[in-house]
């Protein structure tokens, strides 16, 4: 195994806790869960509603993905956390699915939780894989 690389992305969202934006090892890139904060105004109020917050979280994830040279097509798994699961699940899915083509949707788990940092309605983390990483390695 290669030594992990700890990524902090210039212009990325300000961390709400002590963590790296992403950690990479052996072609796997694990992105820390993102909140619906504005990287340009991290102390601003969060967007109102699940749809706006979901877009904001996805944009923050994209900033990190692009900061490590990847994009949505490299994402293989997402974990999604909703504070108002029953109320927001359908609207969340409507927004979330616009980021992935129907034939390239990552594996996903969505969990209802009692609270999230900064009072967010949604948080999403994900795992991406670099193209060609591990090529030729038998299993």
Q: Average the pLDDT over all residues and give the rounded result.
A: 94
Q: Compute the number of structural domains.
A: 1
Task: Give the termini distance in whole angstroms.
Answer: 14 Å
**Quick one: overall form?**
globular
The residue ranges in which pLDDT falls below 50 over 5 or more consecutive positions are none
- The name of the CATH superfamily reads RutC-like
Helix fraction bin:
10-25%
Overall CATH architecture = 2-Layer Sandwich
Largest sheet: 6 strands, mixed
| Rg (C-alpha, Å) | 15 Å
SSE string: EEEHEHEE
Structural class, judged by helices and strands?
A: alpha+beta
What proportion strand? 25-35%
Strand tally:
6
Question: What is the count of helical runs?
Answer: 2
Which sequence of strands runs across the widest sheet? 1-2-3-6-4-5
The CATH topology name reads: 60s Ribosomal Protein L30, Chain: A
CATH class: Alpha Beta
């Amino acid at each position: 195994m290669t030594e992990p690389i700890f990524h902090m992305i210039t212009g990325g969202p300000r961390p709400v806790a002590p963590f790296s934006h992403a950690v990479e090892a052996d072609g796997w890139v694990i992105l820390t869960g993102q909140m619906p904060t504005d990287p340009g105004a991290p102390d601003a109020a969060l967007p109102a509603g699940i749809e706006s917050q979901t877009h904001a979280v996805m944009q923050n994830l994209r900033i990190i993905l692009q900061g490590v040279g990847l994009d949505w097509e490299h994402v293989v798994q997402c974990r999604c956390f909703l504070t108002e699961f029953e109320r927001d699940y359908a609207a969340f899915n409507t927004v979330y699915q616009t980021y992935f083509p129907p034939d390239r949707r990552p594996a996903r788990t969505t969990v209802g939780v009692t609270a999230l940092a900064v009072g967010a309605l949604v948080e999403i983390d994900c795992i991406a894989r670099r193209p060609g990483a591990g090529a030729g390695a038998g299993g």
